[in-house]
Design brief:
The protein has about 475 residues and is of the alpha/beta class. The chain folds into three domains: about 160 residues, Aconitase, domain 3 (2-Layer Sandwich), CATH 3.30.499.10; about 120 residues, Aconitase, Domain 2, CATH 3.40.1060; about 180 residues, Aconitase, domain 3 (2-Layer Sandwich). It is built from 15 helices and 19 strands. The strands form five sheets. A five-stranded parallel sheet has the order 5-4-3-6-7. Strands 17-16-15-18-19 form a five-stranded parallel sheet. β13 and β14 form a beta hairpin. α6 packs parallel to α8, α12 packs across α14 and α12 runs parallel beside α15. Bound molecules: 3-isopropylmalic acid and iron/sulfur cluster. The site of 3-isopropylmalic acid has 8 residues, from loops. Pathway: Amino-acid biosynthesis; L-leucine biosynthesis; L-leucine from 3-methyl-2-oxobutanoate: step 2/4. Its EC number is 4.2.1.33. It catalyses: (2R,3S)-3-isopropylmalate = (2S)-2-isopropylmalate.
């Protein structure tokens, strides 16, 4: 009988070109996603060495981090952003790489557009100069972030040197409660594992809870794997995966669709496959979560309080004290007493159509609290924006007092015009809450779209289950 393999092993084996003598292997990469921030030096290096991309068809580029989300016709005012966005466009044009610039209807955050166009497919290897490439693992693909020098190698050879990852299976069983989403599950898992607990691992999410999640929700979970220290998140292929892909622009049709489906369905862990580590979680134990600190694992449930020093392990007390100082919070303070200045609904974690539908359903017919200075909804892509507008979600947000923007990374990180000012406090559906992440001196609290929407209405955190 053939050896039972994990999904990771199948992906690795089907892409390993050759084992190298130092424990690394040369791995073939099917898709390369390129953004404006991490690619300029790679293109420069390629040009300097007189090389050309080896397989231009495998590359998709889009400007996402730096683009303005307002008044695009006026161009980009920040000089560095302008240089990077222009360099991406001209490099792609010169080399024949498909590129969606900020005026293209398909533009958006790469981790939103590649799946929705069907460019992300099961059984593939996908790399991008961006850590949240783990998102694509929701499709049973081996997807991970790479650095700038690797981008150059990848463009030139379509291969990367890498070491096999250890495997961690997280089995989630039961039903997530009403108002509890895969973002809460992700934050709950990170709280349990710690922000580096998944280091060196590919995390596979399995169990009946995961099987019942939509592709959007699975992407949120895989997106956040990196915040648990893992390089890769994975979900095995099932009918939900196949249904999501059917009819998407880059997905094969006719006989090729039948063949593709049959091939894709192999990308699951075999019964009896052995993982290096296992963790079991009950979905019922997950509640809406809010981060209070400056690392995604510094969080508690909405009915909780900022921890007391004695609740924190002695080795972590310094970072706890530093985090509370930066966040301007007191030990023991009720999470629901945290008042907010801004609310951001967006990012590659939570700016897909399902996220916007959920947020709109919470907001509908209500008004953003007058104490909130700015509440932004930034769709993850042009296609998400168009779909949301076709469903009237933009009206719901605008009527409630939210700003409805053009797609991009926006306030997820302070690389464009959407930022927190020093001292401002934000409920954010993004994935990182490091010091200064959303703007120098800004304070970020990570939450689900439903919780962000409810917080915008209340002006402080509230339990969306009671709204
Ligand atoms: C700019 C990019 C390299 C970075 C990443 O790798 O993730 C960014 O997308 C982020 O979310 O911090
Ligand atoms: S939305 Fe945020 S996390 Fe995602 S790629 Fe952009 S900056 Fe990185």
């Amino acid at each position: 009988m053939a050896e039972a393999k994990t999904l990771f092993q199948k992906l690795w084996d089907s892409h390993r070109v050759v084992d190298l003598d130092d424990g690394e292997a040369l791995v073939y990469i099917d898709r390369h996603l390129v953004n404006e921030v991490t690619s300029p030096q790679a293109f420069e290096g390629l040009g300097r060495r007189g090389r050309k991309p080896w397989r231009v068809d495998a590359v998709l580029a889009a400007a996402d981090h730096n683009v303005p989300t307002l008044m695009r016709s006026q161009g980009i005012s920040d000089q560095l952003a302008l240089v990077q966005v222009r360099a991406l466009a001209s490099n792609c044009q010169a080399l024949g790489i498909t590129h969606y610039g900020m005026d293209d209807a398909r533009q958006g955050i790469l981790h939103v557009i590649a799946p929705e166009l069907g460019i992300t497919q099961p059984g593939m290897t996908i790399a991008c100069g961006d850590s949240h490439t783990s998102t694509h693992g929701a499709f049973g693909a081996l997807a991970f972030g790479i650095g700038t020098s690797d981008i150059e190698h990848l463009l030139a050879s379509q291969c990367l040197r890498m070491r096999p990852l250890k495997t961690l299976r997280i089995t989630v069983s039961g039903t997530l409660g009403k108002g509890v989403s895969s973002k809460d599950l992700a934050l709950g898992i990170i709280a349990r594992l710690g922000a580096s607990g998944g280091a060196g691992h590919a995390i596979e999410f399995a169990g009946d809870t995961i099987e019942s999640l939509s592709m959007e929700a699975r992407m949120t979970l895989c997106n956040m794997s990196i915040e648990a220290g893992a390089r890769v998140g994975l979900v095995g292929v099932d009918q939900t995966t196949i249904d999501y892909l059917q009819g998407r622009v880059a997905v094969p049709s006719g006989d090729a669709w039948e063949q593709a489906q049959a091939y894709w369905r192999e990308f699951v862990s075999d019964e009896g496959a052995r993982f290096d580590r296992e963790l079991a979680i009950s979905a019922e134990s997950i509640q809406p979560i809010v981060t209070w600190g400056t690392s995604p694992d510094m969080s508690c449930t909405i009915d909780g309080r900022v921890p007391l020093p004695e609740d924190i392990e002695p080795t972590r007390r310094d970072s706890y004290t530093q985090a509370l100082f930066y966040m301007d919070l007191c030990p023991g303070m009720a999470i629901s007493d945290i008042r907010l200045d801004k609310v951001f609904i967006g990012s590659c974690t939570n700016a897909r159509i399902e996220d916007l539908r959920i947020a709109a359903s919470v907001v509908k017919g209500q008004r953003v609290a007058s104490s909130i200075r700015q509440a932004l909804v930034v769709p993850g892509s042009g296609m998400v924006k168009a779909q949301a507008e076709a469903e009237g979600l933009d009206r719901i947000f605008v009527d409630a007092g939210f700003e409805w923007r053009e797609p991009g990374c926006s306030m997820c990180l302070g690389m464009n015009e959407d930022r927190l000012l020093p001292g401002e406090r934000c409920a954010s559906t993004s994935n990182r809450n490091f010091e200064g992440r959303q703007g120098a001196g800004g304070r970020s609290h990570l939450v689900s779209p439903a919780m962000a929407a409810a917080a915008a209405i209340a002006g402080h955190f509230v339990d969306v289950r009671t709204c």
